[in-house]
Amino acid sequence: MNPASHQSPPPLPIRSVRAEFQYTEGEAVRAAVVLTNELTPYMRFIPWFGAVMLLVMGSHAIFEGIHDTPKFPIVFGILMVSMPYFVRREAKKRFRQNPSAGNMISWNFAENQIENRTSGAQASFEWNKLILIKQLKDGFLLYPQPRAAHWIPKHSFRSKEDGTAFMQLIKNSGVRYKKS
């Protein structure tokens, strides 16, 4: 008997998968918040730390008197509590300056190549140019560099089958994958 006949067949090629979404202000803000939280995990705790600081300083002001309370910790606490607002505000500002604002963004994921297109621009690259793919609750981050990522919302896939095929392409790609 031929030993080669007992080997499992090679995996079938996965059809290409398309993801498409409109680049809205909401998508821009969601991508900025997700990327900020992923790149700087401690960012989630800064507003809470600021709130605690304000609570402590407020208690000090009540019990010791407003004139005896240091002002710097109060100002710093307000800034810390406001950090999510500043991230969202900056994302909205950048969105308004982006020539792709309001356009459709299209991604095509094939066995060997990834393409993305929007009005007036297109790019393609191989899977091995990604250093990490991170799955989040409502989307994926594709990292071509350690501190930069492309946001692909899950709702951009046409069907659940497309999402499953995309996951199979990720698995076949050999790119490091992490689920958050």
Please provide a written account of the structure:
It is built from five helices and eight strands, in the order βααααββββββαβ. The protein has helices at 25-39, 46-64, 72-81, 83-97, 160-173, and strands at 17-22, 104-109, 113-118, 121-126, 132-135, 139-145, 148-153, 177-179. The strands form two sheets. Strands 1-2-3-4 form a four-stranded antiparallel β-sheet. Strands 7-6-5-8 form a four-stranded mixed β-sheet. The relative contact order is 0.18. The protein is elongated and about 75 Å long. Helix 2 (46-64) runs antiparallel to helix 3.
Label this structure with key terms.
PH-domain like; 41% helix; 5 helices; 8 strands; 180 residues
Taking the sheet with the most strands, its summary is: 4 strands, antiparallel
Q: If you average the pLDDT, what whole number results?
A: 88
So, the CATH homologous superfamily of one domain? Pleckstrin-homology domain (PH domain)/Phosphotyrosine-binding domain (PTB)
Strand order of the largest sheet: 1-2-3-4
- So what's the CATH class of one domain? Mainly Beta
Number of helices: 5
| Shape estimate | elongated
Helix-strand string? EHHHHEEEEEEHE
- Cα separation of the termini: 47 Å
Structural class: alpha+beta
Radius of gyration over all CA atoms, rounded:
23 Å
Poorly predicted tracts of residues: none
Provide the CATH architecture of one domain.
Roll
In helices, the fraction of residues equals 40-55%
Please tally the β strands and state the result: 8
Strand content: 15-25%
CATH topology-level name of one domain: PH-domain like
